[in-house]
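Posting for a labmate who doesn't have an account.
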Amino acid sequence: MNRVKVEFAGSSGQQLAGLLELPNSLQPVKYYALFAHCFTCGKDIAAASRISRELADQGIAVLRFDFTGLGNSDGDFANTNFTSNVQDLVAAAKMLEARYAAPKLIIGHSLGGAAVLSAVNKIPSLQAVATIAAPSTAYHVQHLFDSSKAEIEAQGEAKVNLGGRKFSIKKQLIEDLDQYADLQHIAHLRCPLIVFHSPLDNIVPVDEASKIFTAAKHPKSFVSLDKADHLLSKKEDARYVAKTLAAWAERYVEVLVAEPVAANLEDGHVLVTELDKKFLRGLYTRSHKSVSDEPVSVGGSDLGPTPYALLLMSLGACTSMTIRMYANRKGIPLEDINIRLVHDRVHAEDCAACEEREGQIERIQRFISFKGEQLTQEQIESMLKIANRCPVHKTLESKPVITTELESGE
């Protein structure tokens, strides 16, 4: 499993910080999902991180991020409201679509669940929605401010204790929540819905889940979380949600890419496929699979070696194999070989081995070290010479002809 830090502009233009949980580098991404955390929480809350990681293990890439003014995201929480949270979700979905692939699944925990219910119809790519311990409407959180409501009304702002932390709550947040007091948007969801809730939840009563379920049209599902608490603080509860959600979503969510059937490849052939809309690529032979990518600094996700690094690895592997075969055949007491390679572009005049060439040239430097206490200088020199007889080395020096043709058929 891989984790990529991302930043993108939120609803108010502030930079939002997120984490994209991706399957391991040998597992293709089935599709992308978006996770909304609970009120005043952050992307790193245990429930969000555990569910996201478990879904990544199931082949589902999940983006979780801090809403404006929370966690590592920029902005002032006091200037945000429920509407801006919904707009942040839409911004996150657009970022995923632009950089990777549009999200197919959206998940919301607690007030984040109410937010995703409001955001679903604003994100056209979504095919399924899940709520976890969510209130039926954002208006439900009004009770959190009851003790400070008079001060907020009089002063326009007050410090409110939420979850053991002090937050500045402005009158505009209260007024914004007033807009979200009915269930009409749930009745018009265009996606299948699954509702997770614990009957023992003492923060958001299970009656709220009942309201969501009743208001929604089929297809819809309800999963009782038995003895779980509101924050899913037990690992097993978060994992159960993720595994159940992944299985449920299989019925409704179209898989982004099917894993190529490498067994259909002929020996000596390789297949390269796209795993995202940037640089992540699946690499397949008849019996093996790997990936290639680019560094984050140039717009990639750094989930695999670059194409040039793969080229150097190919040359290094072939060189090492050739030396080993030679050493074994000659009875040379070679214990180990290390080969370090570097690719760069230099002027011919700066290259000692390029006397007959001019201008800018491609150069691959190969540094070889041998281990073996009984190795003689003569044996070391002979192995260095044999390195140049590596088949990949010969291919690179022979200036091979590369042709390009359109593949017919599927």
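Reply:
Got it, the structure tokens are right above this. The chain has a mean pLDDT of 85.
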